[in-house]
Amino acid sequence: MDEMESSELIRAEAVRGEAPGPAWSFSLRRGDALWIPDGGDEGMAWLDWLTGIEPPPAGQVFWKGVEWRDRGPDDASAERGRMGCVFAAGGLLANLDMDENVWLPSRMHRRERAEESIERWARFFGVWPVPAERAPFVRERDRRKILWTRAFAGEPEALVLERPLREAPAEDRTLFLEAVKQVRAAGCAVVWVEESPDAATQAALAPLAAAAPGPA
């Protein structure tokens, strides 16, 4: 395997949703950024498919050269722990405090130096210490940045970001895009799922490849 092949993290081959439509194929290597144009109502569960939470109705998704369905449960869980996610719907567990939501992935995947990484990103986003309170008692702006902290903590090898900047104020957008720049420089691949990122976001993510479906 040559150096370029070994750097590939994610590959999608002929992926389709439930409804008839075109197939999507693309790949990402370390440090790449890929934009998937998706408004959230196309029935394409990209975050679930790319992280191996569930398989697509048609096609295959590979992580580090292995199709997710070919991994055993323990292996799939361990590899999923090497990815960070921002969910469009938040992805909070309602029965956990905000600090517990941030800590959960690190505890599940036994990440080394988890406390150091969580503190680093919480300070970066301005939400340190992470509040030991349930979500309704934390203002929305801080909840968003706490969820960003959860995604970036643990030195992820890939980030899957589902409309991460929706309704975020300008200064927070700038902060988030700087965080993306930093992790990409360290080799993290980034998938940005959004119907149409604004020009400033696309410029900040450059070089940014755009995924496009094949013929239906």
Describe the fold and architecture:
With 216 residues, this protein is α/β, with parallel strands linked by helices. The protein is built from eight helices and nine strands. The protein has helices spanning 3-6, 46-50, 73-80, 98-108, 114-125, 140-152, 170-185, 199-204; strands at 8-16, 24-29, 33-36, 58-63, 66-67, 83-86, 158-162, 189-193, 209-210. Strands 6-7-8-3-9 form a five-stranded parallel sheet. The chain has a four-stranded antiparallel sheet with strand order 2-1-4-5. Helix 4 (98-108) packs parallel to helix 6 and helix 5 packs antiparallel against helix 6 (140-152). The longest helix is centred in the C-terminal third of the chain and has 16 residues, at 170-185. The chain is globular, with a radius of gyration of 17 Å. Residues 1-5 have low confidence and may be disordered.
Q: What Rg, in angstroms, do the CA atoms define?
A: 17 Å
The total of helices stands at 8
Q: Strand percentage, roughly? A: 15-25%
Beta strands, count: 9
Largest sheet: 5 strands, parallel
Class by SSE composition = alpha/beta
Helix content: 25-40%
Overall geometry:
globular
Side-by-side strand order of the widest sheet: 6-7-8-3-9
Q: What's the rounded overall pLDDT mean? A: 92
Give the end-to-end Cα distance, rounded to a whole number of Å.
33 Å
| Helix and strand element order | HEEEHEEHEHHHEHEHE
Spans of at least 5 consecutive residues whose pLDDT stays below 50 are 1-5
